[in-house]
Each structure stands twice: as C-alpha cells, then as structure tokens.
Amino acid sequence: MTAITYEHIKTCKQTGARLGKVHTPHGSFDTPAFMPVGTLATVKTMSPEELKDMNANIILSNTYHLWLRPGHDIIEEAGGLHQFMNWDGAILTDSGGFQVFSLSDMRDIKEEGVHFRNHLSGEKLFLSPEKAVTIQNSLGSDIMMAFDECPPYPASHDYMKSSVERTSRWAERCLKAHERPFDQGLFGIIQGGEYEDLRKQSAEDLVSLDFPGYAIGGLSVGEPKDIMNRMLEFTTPLIPSDKPRYLMGVGSPDSLVDGAIRGIDMFDCVLPTRIARNGTCMTSNGRLVVRNAKYARDFSPLDENCDCHVCRNYTRAYIRHLVKCNETFGFRLTTYHNLYFLLKLMEQVRTAISEDRLGDFKEAFFEQYGFNKENAKNF
Ligand SMILES: [Zn+2]
User: Fold this and answer.
1) How far does the centroid of ligand 1 lie from the alpha carbon of residue 328, in Å?
2) 254 has catalytic annotation
3) Whether the Cβ atoms of residue 134 and residue 177 lie closer than 8 Å to each other
4) Contact in structure between 181 and 163 (CB atoms under 8 Å)
5) How many angstroms is it from 340 CA to the middle of ligand 1?
6) Is 226 in the active site?
7) Is the pTM higher than 0.90?
8) What is the CA(339)–ligand 1 centre distance, in A?
9) Which pLDDT tens digits describe the chain residue by residue (379 residues)?
10) CA distance 60 to 169
11) Could you report the per-residue pLDDT of 79-100, keeping only the tens digit for each?
C-alpha cells in the first residue's frame, strides 16, 4: 500500500500530453497540475480558504524554512503541517537541498551530507538525507522529496557525474530513513544537468529503487529553454508511465504548456506570487505591469478574459494605486489573480488534452500571450 498513486485517464493524440489524477491521503488532484508555493506554511498573502476557492488542491511548502522557523518539532506538536496551517488539501514538501545550495554560500558537501550556515543567523548547520526525511516525517506532508544535490548551470560533465552518483546514494539513504511510507509518498529526483548520459544514469538508478513518483530536477536553473525542453523529451520516457512526473521550479505560462506536452504531470514555482508582490500580472494578453503610469485612469479589469473575483470587482487603476502605496490589499489582489490565472490555464490544458487538441491550444495561447513575438518576455 503506497500513500501516493497515479491514475492515468488519457493521452492527447495531438501532443502525447497526459491527463490524470494523483491520489493522496488528503484528497486527489487533476493533472497536469500547478502547485502554489507556500514557503513558510503560507502562500504569501492568501488564506487557505482563498486557495480552496481558486481550486488549488495541492500546495508546496519548504522544509528548510520550516526547519529553521518555527522548527519542525513545533509543527509536529501541532499535529503536523496540515493542522498547523489549517489546510486539509494535499501538501508537497521539498527536501531543503535546493535552499541549502542556493541560499548559503558557506557550504561543504560531503558524502554524509552538507555542512552550511543558517542564512538568517550564520549559525552552523548540517543537513543529510536522513535529517531531511526525518523533518518531512515530522511535517507530515503527503508528498516528500528525496535529498539531492542540484548543481548550478553550467556544471562540468565530471562534476555532474560524481554529483548524480552521490544523489543516487543519498536517495537510497532517504528511503531507508523514511518512517511513514503508508501515509507519505517519497519521490526521487532525477538530476544530470544538460547531459543525456547522466540523465539516463540518474533515472535508471532511481527507478530501480521504485519510488512512488519522480521529479526532474536541475532544470530552470539558468539554462536556455531549448535545453530544458530537450532534457524533458529525453528524460520523461525513462520514468515508468504509472508514476507521477514532477518538473521542479517551473511556472511561466509557456513552460507549463511546453512541459505538459512533454509528459509532465506536476509543476511548482514562486513566479506568480513573487511577481504579484512586484505589481506584475499574468493575463491572457501577456504580462501586465500594473504599477505603470498608463494604468492610473484605466478602470478596466486586470484581464478582461478572466472571471476571478479580482477581475470581476476591481480595476487596474485601483490596484495600481494600492500597489504604489504598498498596501497589503493590493498584493493580495495581484497574487489572487496570478494564481487563479495559472490554475485556470492548467484547467484549459487538461480540457485540451481530453479533446486531443493541446497543440492547437498552445498555438492560440502563445499567439495571444505574445510568446511568438520576437523579444518576448519570459512570463
Ligand atoms: Zn483575474
């Protein structure tokens, strides 16, 4: 009995994208799915009720941040992360590895784990595969991630090879340390950067360990988009088709559609919430920087084609005013709209897969968003 199962519903005849459902101890979610990121046990500025309202059925939270603040022992004492933050949907936690590698410049990678300094206090800390799993067992997330190394782009073939091999040894240690396989599913993470032979080696190592799901890591770390798409095309067929496939850290609208076309089921990214707090919105007609002066007297909604409660009730002029004045409510409105926009996009992607027309959908969506234009912005 595994905690996480994948139900395949249909493959798009036009593109090969997969329509499915992932079942977890805290409900099911339809795939391809986008997961909003709630780093510190909150999707910044959103209440769990608002997330439910926009049909988010799974969110992501960050092990590293919760380990430091408030501490996983406090969350365990509260009855686990779901209870602590009053969220009864599914939760995925990462392993903390990515933050250790990206936030801390003082780190020492050893076979036993990584020694580094707390990015807040400078205190010396140590994270290992066993520790990352123990913390996630305390948090009680539905989907946990194995502790891996995510080398920056570009990395040499030699370095990447030794890193991939260590990540495989760490994955095995994570499985051994996992104490709650009956109600928490542990996913393995395929690394290998831009090297096909190493992606293959990593996938084979991890598939032989029989995880309930697999992530593709080490993409969207600064490499050109065509490398990402090529690596996805190469790697997804190496993952057993009865297991969910998760592309980590990807959330621009074009990459979500391109990832789905290459057989990805799950995505997460801070992009929609981070740019929202900057006054930038995703709309069906492309990126809209609502703080710009030209919207001062614009009394139309953020996106005329969006039916979210923000677009039904508030104007660009009002939201611009709030954002310019650093009013919290302004950031709540832009965050709500951006998340709704991506969740709705995934719903449209799923409908297009069910009707075998995701290729046509992509063409129309990219054209209207402006991804086909020269010098198109990434999001
Ligand atoms: Zn909207």
Assistant:
1) 17
2) no
3) yes
4) no
5) 7
6) no
7) yes
8) 9
9) 689 999 999 999 999 999 999 999 999 999 999 999 999 999 999 999 999 999 999 999 999 999 999 999 999 999 999 999 999 999 999 999 988 888 777 789 999 999 998 888 889 999 999 999 999 999 999 999 999 999 989 999 999 999 999 999 999 999 999 999 999 999 999 999 999 999 999 999 999 999 999 999 999 999 999 999 999 999 999 999 999 999 999 999 999 999 999 999 999 999 999 999 999 999 999 999 999 999 999 999 999 999 999 999 999 999 999 999 999 999 999 999 999 999 999 999 999 999 999 999 999 999 999 988 755 655 6
10) 25
11) 999 999 999 999 999 999 988 8
66 closest CA partner among 33, 42, 101: 42
DSSP string, 249-314: T---HHHHHHHHHTT--EEE-SHHHHHHTTTEEEETTEEEETTSGGGTT--S-S-TT--SHHHHH-
311 CA from centroid of ligand 1 (Å): 4
Reduce the DSSP state of residue 354 to 3 states and report it.
Answer: helix
Spot the catalytic one: 94, 148, 205, 254.
Answer: 94
Rg value, the chain, Cα: 20
pLDDT at residue 377, rounded to an integer: 56
How far is residue 176's CA from residue 186's CA, in Å, rounded to a whole number?
A: 11
- Whole-angstrom Cα distance, residue 348 to residue 48? 23
Q: Identify the DSSP state of 45.
A: T
Q: Is residue 333 within a helix (H) or strand (E), and if so which, with residue range?
A: helix 328-354
Name the 3-class secondary structure at 90. strand
Q: Could you tell me which residues are beta bridge partners of residue 115?
A: 108, 126
Written as six digits, the tokens of 55 are: 């049909």
Characterize the bridge pairing of strands 245-247 and 266-268: parallel
Q: Distance from first CA to last CA of the chain, Å, rounded?
A: 40
Helix spans in 104-184 (H): 129-139, 157-177
Question: Which distant-in-sequence residues (6+ apart) come within 8 Å of 83 by Cβ?
Answer: none
